Request: fold
Amino acid sequence: MDIREYNRSAWDRLVQKGNRWTIPVSRDLINRARKGEWEIVLTPEKTVPKDWFPNIEGLDVLCLASGGGQQGPILAAAGANVTVFDNSPKQLERDLYVADRDSLILKAVEGDMADLTMFDNESFDLVIHPVSNTFVPNVRPVWTEAYRVLRHGGVLLSGFNNPAVFLFDYDLLENTGIIQVKFRLPYSDIDNPEEKKKRIEEDGPLEFSHTLEELIGGQIDAGFIITGFYEDAQKYTEELLAAYMPTCIATRAIKP
Reply:
């Protein structure tokens, strides 16, 4: 099965369905960003601390697997030179829509987050990578490629799922409120035929968990120095689980 091709089509369909991460930001948020009043998220609820960012004006920024008309246009309005990179053409259309609507300059490039060979070494000052590596089976190439395209002193801001959220039986949770372990980690839709079938029937993208060794240790192994960390809770879909544990993680890492 071509996972990348399937997930591209699945995210294109999510755009048509109005998924939360496919809704472009408003003109008001763009106007505020132009005045220096802006914020973005890597995870569902918490905004990224302002001291995690270098001075954004004039920076070359890669929004990695970050289509949907959200982070990229805001950073472009704040003065950055933005390239939005995503697997879904429909997601990239959202960014181009905002750029056209609000007279912003940004680039939209389609591709695999684990393969940035179209970009030269040390092309960017900042990489923004919100929760999206859930949709690739191997996360380590994402870190090594992000490291390669960053300039020395550049910053990687990334969000990802807490691996533990993949342990549980969500049908049981939604129907009864009971939290019960069902799956072995690391989790893969491909390795669980019933879940894979259900995901495809629901037109959802295939998902994969990654260990903390891959998510955090993988950044370190790629050469990054991690300088920031916070947790978040994905309350809008996992309210019952979020009452007991953080469901997402964000990290700040520097290429020395």
